[in-house]
Amino acid sequence: MNKEEEVCTEEAVADEGSSVPPEKGLAPPQPATKSQLKEAEEKIDERMSAFERSTIRLTRIGLFVGILTMIIFLGQFFEMYEAGTQTIR
User: Is the Cβ–Cβ distance between 53 and 60 less than 8 Å?
Assistant: First the structure.
């Protein structure tokens, strides 16, 4: 069996949905260090497009409006509840 047949066999195994044997000569992935994670976190704004930044901004505004609406709704509910107990007496 030559090398081309091995590649074809591995591709056929991948197409069938079963696991493909690991590539030879590749080192297992290493976990990221703290400095790498910090660097990636700092550079995320540079990688984001203007659309993504505006989406985040609109999400924050939506959450603020939702929380404000909930506070108003609960205030109205409490007022109705208190008025209902006063009419029972």
Answer: no
Alpha helix ranges (H) inside the chain: 3-15, 34-42, 44-47, 50-88
Q: What angle do CA 3, 5, 11 make, to 5 degrees?
A: 105
pLDDT higher than threshold 60 for residue 20: no
Judge contact between 22 and 14, C-beta under 8 A.
no
Per-residue pLDDT tens digits for 40-83: 777 776 777 888 889 999 999 999 999 999 999 999 999 998 88
Q: Which two tokens stand for residue 5?
A: 């047949």
Angle formed at CA 34 by CA 28 and CA 38, multiple of 5 degrees: 120
Between CA 23 and CA 10 the distance in angstroms is 10
